[in-house]
Amino acid sequence: MKKAPVADEEIFGPVVCAMPFDELDQLATQMNQTTYGLAGAIWTKDVSKAHRMARAMKAGTVWINCYNIFDAALPFGGYKQSGWGREMGREALELYTEVKSVCLKM
């Protein structure tokens, strides 16, 4: 497939890339070739296919048949070069805690 900057770079938009594909495995390989992975969206009538692709997509947030939906209970953050750690959700609180185990034999 021909390289396209819109598919390979972290462009803040939102930007929509509508690209044809023959096999889901081929699509998963193509979408994960970028060094970024903040978020992505899948549009389909096939919910089973959407969940398979969401599992395969190396991105911190995957929306299915919607885009830019946020909830304070959901962690947000990217994979790969799109950031480290998470904002929002319980995962964000873990950044401010230090876990300790204490055992006492009585």
Write a short abstract of this structure:
The protein is an alpha+beta fold and 106 residues long. The protein has helices spanning 5-8, 24-31, 47-56, 89-93; strands at 36-37, 39-42, 61-64, 79-80.
Q: Please report the number of helical segments.
A: 4
Task: Give the CATH superfamily.
Answer: Aldehyde Dehydrogenase, Chain A, domain 2
Low-confidence stretches: none
CATH topology: Aldehyde Dehydrogenase, Chain A, domain 2
Q: Tally of extended strands?
A: 4
What order do the SSEs take from the amino end to the carboxyl end, as H and E? HHEEHEEH
* Biggest sheet: strand arrangement: 1-4
What would the principal axes of the Cα set say about the shape?
elongated
Overall average residue pLDDT: 84
Q: Give helix % range.
A: 25-40%
Structural write-up:
The protein is an alpha+beta fold and 106 residues long. The protein has one domain (5-96): Aldehyde Dehydrogenase, Chain A, domain 2 (3-Layer(aba) Sandwich). It is built from four helices and four strands; from the N terminus they run H-H-E-E-H-E-E-H. The strands form two sheets. It has a two-stranded antiparallel sheet with strand order 1-4. It has a two-stranded parallel sheet with strand order 2-3. Helix 3 links the parallel strand 2 (39-42) and strand 3 (61-64). The longest helix has 10 residues, at 47-56. It is elongated and about 65 Å long. 6% of the residues are buried. The mean pLDDT is 84.
Q: What is the secondary structure topology, with strand pairs?
A:
Layout: H1 5-8, H2 24-31, E1 36-37, E2 39-42, H3 47-56, E3 61-64, E4 79-80, H4 89-93
Parallel strand pairs: 2-3
Antiparallel strand pairs: 1-4
